[in-house]
Amino acid sequence: MKNFTFYNPVKIIFGKGTIEKIGAEAAVHGKTALLVYGKGSIKKNGVYAAVTQSLKASGLAFVEHEGVKSNPVLAHTREGIKKARENKCDLVIAAGGGSVIDESKAIAAGFKYSGDVWDFFSGKTAIKDAMPLLTVLTIPATGSEMNCGFVITNEETSQKFNAASPCSFPKVSIMDPLVTITLPKTQTANGAVDALAHIVEGYFTTKDKDAAITDELVHAIARSVIAGTDRILANPEDYNARASMMWSATLALNGLQALGYGGGSFINHAIEHSLSALYDIAHGAGLAIVMPAWFKYDLKISGPERLAKFGRSVFGVAAASDKEAAERTIASFEKWFSKIGAPLKLSEVKIPAADIPKIAENAMGLITKWGIDCDRTSVEDILRKAV
Amino acid sequence: MKNFTFYNPVKIIFGKGTIEKIGAEAAVHGKTALLVYGKGSIKKNGVYAAVTQSLKASGLAFVEHEGVKSNPVLAHTREGIKKARENKCDLVIAAGGGSVIDESKAIAAGFKYSGDVWDFFSGKTAIKDAMPLLTVLTIPATGSEMNCGFVITNEETSQKFNAASPCSFPKVSIMDPLVTITLPKTQTANGAVDALAHIVEGYFTTKDKDAAITDELVHAIARSVIAGTDRILANPEDYNARASMMWSATLALNGLQALGYGGGSFINHAIEHSLSALYDIAHGAGLAIVMPAWFKYDLKISGPERLAKFGRSVFGVAAASDKEAAERTIASFEKWFSKIGAPLKLSEVKIPAADIPKIAENAMGLITKWGIDCDRTSVEDILRKAV
Asked: A60, B6, B153, B377: most buried, per Cβ within 10 A?
């Protein structure tokens, strides 16, 4: 078990009817909010009304910054910073899914920085300050509501890059599972794949295979994501399943899921970011394509031990030999992704196999930035397993 | 799944050789520390030398407050407050196990309060402020290093009572598993029982039996505590087992273990506190006596469902019927407690059965304070199952 530091000061307010608390919580941190949201789904599911009413009741002014795309982009982030400055905002409220929260984190940090916000992503500078950020989560998936990382796509360079800073933890995140009940099946599935990917990355690339408590937590969260999603797809109005899934997705990337692993690589994310940057597909869909392909590739390099352990604990794989158990684990992932309607092949999201070299070239950007030991040929090999 | 709020801002620095960081971390929060520790074990295991050297290197002054008892007492707490005031301390450093950390929390809060520190425990007043507290943990057991609760025994009234406040979260807790390698078998076992008890309490008294992710986490932590302890008892120098156990005990009471349960009762703790208050036995030993007795009592009231679920997941109980699975789960607890050398009967810690009415009377203090639905006759019934 490797050394680690864990610090996560996000206050989580979780449950039915909690969105109305946003005003009182926000009033602790500022007076004029930049209210960031997406393309209007929050106006259909009641979140917009609940948030704005609560802000008004607590005497907060707010300026709206709407239109955040899934795979949020740099230009819109810059607009948000400009709007926050023009309106002398002193806090940011994100109402939406991971994309909205990520762009909000970028705006909160960019607001306090005299240079261009992309500098945080290119590695030119570190984040030293940020406006206070509060979130109202509407889609369980990315875990951004309880961590300090975020991802923005530079649409000029097709780079989907990340940044992180302790300044970027939300002060408060409100999570009402009721608002997830109207999520379409595809978003539910993509969110589940994303959550699963977050715990898979560290688990399978750990530098220490003897961090028993963290392995147990990873298995627990994975089982819960899978069981919760199965219940939701059987009955979308199952509140407890929605709630368990929502909290599971948060736990899948709040730091706990990788403690003692000594840092692993986010290789599946590094490759997937290129798919969603180049083809604007959903992040979860891209991960469902990349993960089984990477498992098959990595099985020959890392051996079957971890895959076998995961499968036995999470999927109930009963094979006696590790080799067979590992293969059945990969098959279980594929079977489950198919069952929930996630794609497994590039062709299913209309990405031609001929583009693989171009995707691999793009992926080398993040692979290099993150210091992952994987060359371009290997990325091509991985992607060819998803043809 | 019930609504919840989760907030835990403790910074954890975990791993080999981390104690030397205490000085730099403490310097952020103050200049003159009250250094609280127990009866000298930290002078034998190198912790005292590492802490004091680090404090000096970072330019911190410190005043020593030694002699904290396991089951820390009010008189010594008051002395600590007096010493901190006389020496104009502005932070507290706890170096030890849960008792040392608990007394340190009481001192840190009592220092800022003009009345008597017992007022926090009697319920006369709430904690509104506290000195910053940093901890160096030496015994995995209570979880106090990453929560805001603490327990003190009033030796005049034989009341072992608790207090809690968001002000009482440690700023930083340093956890070096290396220092636990020299822990005697009894302390290892008592710590494991305590950790197990912390997750058991919420799980078996939950107001909502459909909080799937939290059930999964509880199973994960329980399995990890049991497996870690087994490894440690087989080989006390197994670093990874010590590390996994240390982090597991923290997770067993940092709040995560009960989210969505809607509050449960700490009935086993309420009864055990009377055993350790009246007879000064180790808290973990008392819990090993009370828990199986309470399971047997509660099985008839709550039914077998939760015990069966826990046993199937944690102990691998294979019984088909819930009733049989529940009984085997209780037997598994007893078998494991015996295996690690924890007592199961009052007689094993020399408490006479004739004292049961007196113990039950004492226990009603906490049971009433905590609003637990359990009368004196029931406490006597429970204790008679441990004769």
From this structure: B153
